[in-house]
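Hi C.,

You asked whether I'd gotten around to modeling the 149-residue construct. I have! Everything is below, sequence then structure, no commentary in between.
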Amino acid sequence: MAEVEERSPDDAELAVLLKAAFDELVSRNGAEGRTQVKDGARYFVVVDGGQAVGCGAIQVFGPDSAHPGDAEVKRVYVTPAARGRGYARRLLATLEEAARSAGHPVLRLSTAERQPEAIALYGSSGYVRIAPWGKYVNEPLTRCYGKAL
């Protein structure tokens, strides 16, 4: 049975997963995939049979942003060999619960047109398309979504 665990940003297994996520984003989206998760993010790892097979994070919008208090989903990723088992959906539910428990009213995210699997996951999980914010305003291949918690 797979478990989702919160991990430290310097966790070695998390680092491997984040590099794989970053590499896949860049291979699919080019320069648009080169965004970094900010300090202070909370990271979660899916572990199945003792092996880390997926990751994701939430980071809080700062008080100087247009959406203070909201949180953003970052780096939802499942290794190719572990896809199709519901891990991304379970991870997303954990990220939502972590954000809700921390008092964030809305969870936002961005993905790319070239990631139809992600778009399908977010749509089937109750996320709705919203106007882009910040740096995403000038990225035409980026799609932004939000969900009230």
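If it helps when you're writing up: The longest strand covers residues 51-60.

Thanks,
B.
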